[in-house]
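To illustrate the input format used throughout this study, we show a single complete record. The first block contains the structure-token representation of the backbone; no residue identities are included at this stage. The design step must infer an amino acid for every position from geometry alone.
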């Protein structure tokens, strides 16, 4: 809802189990929500577990192709309105291609979400198209258009995203930007910011 103010601090942990297999843990904690009556609720957000497998590695003549599966564990408090209290499942196809300083990504998602109105599940589709350009060795920009079809009581929406990235070193990247709602039922504007750390290569063989 565009009249609500949402704030969260998402954390994503990714680990390459094998060269072509990646597992991921995401959480939206802490999470707070202020409604139209200015009542604020806060607490833990939902948790998401996922696994991704690379079908085709990228080379000069073809893009990289991967498939992923994610399941949302409803750890957010449903009574406070911080979550639906239902399990969601996502099946994702990812395509990526880099040419020079430009990277193009396309993601298509089939979402099977637990309804808030009954105990059934509803299907919906989501997609995102992003272009990333490395301006200098450290600075880059990214533009993205994404959208989702209607799911249960959640109206469909489209978004535009603009982000600036700064690579501090080989392991640390900062990013910040704005997300805009492009359709009537989408939140009008949001601020995004994040940092990515490459902690270690745990699969590296030592001789």
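Output of the design step:
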């Amino acid at each position: 809802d565009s009249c609500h103010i949402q704030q969260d601090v998402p954390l994503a942990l990714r680990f390459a189990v094998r060269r072509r297999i990646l597992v991921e843990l995401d959480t939206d904690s802490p999470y707070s929500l202020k409604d139209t009556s200015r009542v604020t609720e806060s607490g833990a957000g939902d948790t998401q577990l996922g696994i991704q497998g690379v079908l085709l590695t990228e080379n000069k003549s073809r893009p990289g192709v991967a498939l992923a599966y994610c399941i949302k564990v409803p750890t957010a408090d449903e009574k406070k309105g911080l979550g639906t209290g239902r399990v969601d499942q996502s099946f994702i196809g990812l395509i990526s291609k880099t040419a020079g300083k430009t990277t193009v990504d396309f993601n298509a998602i089939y979402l099977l979400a637990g309804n808030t109105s009954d105990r059934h599940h509803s299907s919906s589709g989501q997609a995102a198209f992003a272009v990333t350009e490395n301006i200098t060795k450290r600075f880059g920009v990214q533009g993205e258009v994404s959208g989702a079809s209607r799911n249960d009581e959640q109206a469909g929406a489209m978004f535009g995203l603009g982000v600036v990235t700064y690579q501090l070193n080989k392991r640390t990247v900062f990013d910040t930007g704005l997300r805009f709602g492009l359709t009537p039922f989408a939140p009008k504007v949001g601020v995004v910011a994040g940092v990515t750390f490459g902690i270690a290569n745990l699969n590296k063989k030592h001789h």
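Structural context for interpreting the output: The chain is about 0% helix and 60% strand. The mean pLDDT is 88.
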